[in-house]
Specification:
The protein has helices spanning about 1-5, 10-35, 40-50, 50-60, 65-85, 90-110, 115-125, 135-150, 155-160, 165-170, 175-190, 200-215, 220-245, 250-265, 270-280. α12 packs across α13 and α13 (about 220-245) crosses α14 (about 250-265). The chain has a domain at about 10-200: ABC transporter involved in vitamin B12 uptake, BtuC. The mean pLDDT is about 85. The chain is about 80% helix and about 0% strand. It contains 15 helices and no strands. By secondary structure, it is an all-alpha fold.
């Protein structure tokens, strides 16, 4: 049994994969709590795809892909925030405009490459097994910055999430806090790039927090439970991908989805089977 648990991590690439996967599982789960509470799942998906031109530009320039993704994510997040802040355009409309424009620009840039299919596939679906030491340090630094920002802005973001009108009355700077949340989301997506990829990052932002939401309504507890689910999903997904030769990013997401289904069915008070059992009594 011990050999079965330790065998995958005798390899350096698996150790780096474990560190990156747990970091991503935790930071996505924590930031995702605000996404779930504010019903902004579309924003997460839009920003995930909006980093594509940054990745393509970085590839063309021969620089680190994460750096290109970070620049694109920050620019799109600020663009959405500024456009919706004017009041002339609704937030969901601004998201749709920037999402479509950034995705189109990414497609145009990629179409100029000859070998993009093989080289950029991991951007879409992730390749945690190929994470380098440099990537791991960058991921750790960005993840720590996001978690520190959440800690420092926790009370303000709490008020904005549950009662933005009251937050505005208190003069908390709702517009700036919203922009800050967008930036944290963009950085979180960049952190997740090498692990689960653009196509799956929205699932890690939404699924663990949605699972935690079925188990508790208190935000601090929700964040802790969500982070635990994200971390356990990452570790379990790595084990399954190693022993069954599966896609690591996809397996991590499917494990997280499995936890959601269990909570949906069995969560105390809110689970489907729990409620049926209560009615039957």
């Amino acid at each position: 049994m011990i050999d079965w648990l330790t065998e995958p991590f005798v390899y350096g690439f698996m150790q780096r994969a474990l560190g990156a996967a747990v970091l991503v599982g935790v930071v996505c789960a924590v930031v995702g709590c605000y996404i779930v509470l504010k019903s902004m799942a579309f924003l997460g998906d839009a920003l995930a795809h909006a980093i594509l031109p940054g990745v393509a530009a970085a590839y063309l320039l021969g620089v680190n892909l994460l750096a290109g993704a970070l620049v694109a994510g920050v620019l799109v997040a600020l663009g959405i925030s500024l456009l919706s802040k004017t009041g002339s355009v609704r937030e969901d409309t601004a998201i749709g405009i920037f999402f479509a424009a950034a995705l189109a620009l990414g497609v145009v840039l990629i179409s100029t490459m000859r070998s993009y299919a093989a080289d950029l596939t991991h951007v879409l679906f992730g390749n945690v097994l190929a994470v380098s030491s440099t990537d791991l340090w960058i991921t750790g630094g960005l993840a720590a910055a996001v978690l520190l920002a959440v800690l420092l802005l926790y009370k303000r973001l709490l008020v904005v999430s549950f009662d933005p009108v009251f937050a505005d009355t208190l003069g908390l700077g709702v517009g700036w806090l919203r922009a800050g949340l967008f930036l944290m989301l963009a950085v979180t997506i960049v952190v997740s790039l090498s692990t689960v990829g653009v196509a799956l990052v929205a699932a890690m932002l939404v699924t663990p927090p949605a699972t935690a939401y079925l188990l508790t309504r208190r935000l601090p507890v929700m964040m802790v439970v969500s982070a635990l689910i994200g971390a356990v999903s990452a570790v379990a997904g790595l084990y399954l991908s190693y022993y069954f030769d599966l896609s690591s990013g996809g397996t991590i997401v499917l494990v997280a989805t499995g936890f959601f289904i269990l909570a949906f069915l069995l969560a105390p008070q809110r689970g489907l089977l729990w409620r049926k059992w209560r009615h039957a009594k």
